Amino acid sequence: MYDLLIIGGGAAGFFTAINVSEKHPDFSIAILEKSKEVLQKVRISGGGRCNLTNATFTPAELVRNYPRGYKELLSPFHRFMCGDVMEWFEAHGVPLKTEDDGRVFPASDSSESIINCFLKAIAQHNIELFTQQNVQSISPAEQGWQVRTANRTFTAKRLVIATGSNPKIWQLLADLGHTIVSPVPSLFTFQTATEWAKTLSGIAVTATVQLFSQKGDFLQISERAPLLFTHKGFSGPAVLRASAWGARVLASLDYQCLMEVNFATADEQALSYDEVLLQLQDCKQRHGRKAVQSVTLFQLPKRLWEALLESAGVAPAQQWASLNKSQLQQLAKVLTQSRFSITGKNTFKEEFVTAGGVKLSEIDFKTYQSKLFKHLYLAGEVLDIDAVTGGFNFQNAWTGGYLISEAL
């Protein structure tokens, strides 16, 4: 009979176990993990560097990075958020560094620093770790909970489920009576049928991205951030944020849509069609004898500028003075309203995030305890919470684990 049993040997599971043990040294605690290895998502995050949180220090600003869960997380973030996480890891012997875009990493640039910290902590606190424990059933017991795996039976006074996006565990929770919001992919890159875009692989540019249905209806998804051309289509923060906020509507469209891009920027602001047309007319007056390809606007990479010219029906070697009204208008449209046919998605690197999980209205976010069952707690992506890139998914895991330890 354990005082606390945790299903899931990932970020949320370990963080919960360690913080509970620090507050209750007398507790007997065990972690169950279905795989041979623990903390696999921590290991691959951020290209093996582990982007563990983000230097966003206002709860109201922080929740804007959560397409699902932003309302529920506002109160928890007032109690434990990014600065608290950074202080926690520094105090546990992991020096950190903050990059220019706000992402926070171990100073070592290695996720092993986080993994070693966690493994050292559970050893110090005598927290038991059982790997290759594939959970078969979860059921209330006389004094708490009973968990059966393929080869063992565990009983505990309190149970934490921190298994991430795990369909089998979701089904077991549904069997108990919890509502599961059906999962769909979130945080993915776009494939395109627009062939000339694929020839620009490796080019990155800050742009405004908007998504439309194939019929032209605006999907209420708009992001302004760096856009990366790939050999299959598009990636970068603009696309990843759009994929997260549009996860459900894009799934309903089978990932077939139109992406409109505004490449025209001045003073970090997107320019309108009319503003760009005026600039093009000015270029025609001032650079009449020059080739259009030699005067690159809006600091666009040369390859992209030439591709946009050709898309607008303007020969790169053509002189500015020879551009007619129709060509200027078409170039202004291409610069501000280029549309690309999106035909599918790809997983972002090795990281896979889903939108879906336990319905949030069934969780008390003061304690992360189930409203349906006493002494049953849930943390991390097993809940219907997901975030954009930048360390925010881990922040959700740390906050949930810490507040469970406070509740206990």
UniProtKB/TrEMBL annotation:
The RsdA/BaiN/AoA(So)-like insert domain, residue ranges: 184-353
Annotated RsdA/BaiN/AoA(So)-like Rossmann fold-like domain residues: 3-404
Keyword Flavoprotein: yes
Top-level taxonomic group: Bacteria
InterPro entries: BaiN-like (IPR004792), BaiN-like_dom_sf (IPR023166), FAD/NAD-bd_sf (IPR036188), RsdA/BaiN/AoA(So)-like_dom (IPR055178), RsdA/BaiN/AoA(So)_Rossmann (IPR057661)
Record keywords, A-Z: FAD, Flavoprotein
Matches recorded under PANTHER family: OS12G0638800 PROTEIN (PTHR42887:SF2)
Protein's name according to its UniProt entry: Aminoacetone oxidase family FAD-binding enzyme
